[in-house]
Amino acid sequence: MPEPHFTLFDVQRDGMPEVIVVNDALLAFPHHELFPWHLRVRIEAIEIIENGMPSPAESQILFEIGDAIETAVLNGRTQQGAKNSLFLARSTWNELRELLFQVHDPEIANAALQELLGSKQWQRSWEFRMQEDPQWKEAAYVFALFPMADGNDA
Fold it and tell me: Do residues 92 and 21 touch, judged by C-beta distance below 8 A?
């Protein structure tokens, strides 16, 4: 498994500013077949200051919720004790915080997120969607942010 390494981008998506942190160690990860599921978690921001971006106080709330979600997803282990999920990116744009992961066993990640959803009353509404994506096509947008990305990466 590659050690996570992060790159920060300030970009535009659909005409809106986006701040996105990407685990660039996954650019060269050759074993996409081990993590064939794409998981996207969306947290709704409420206190927006400009261009769909959260206020500093709102950003703090989004980080707290996002950290709990990341911990739940990334702490999942397969029956053999291996990592079940890889962190791909965290994005803030258009009144949303999005967390992206690549997942080995969707049932493990789903169970962790369902438990987390029911564990308490959350300060912000959040939802998740997981889909099979063995070629990591859903990650293409993230990988395309890197100038060195080529056909296999983008």
Answer: no
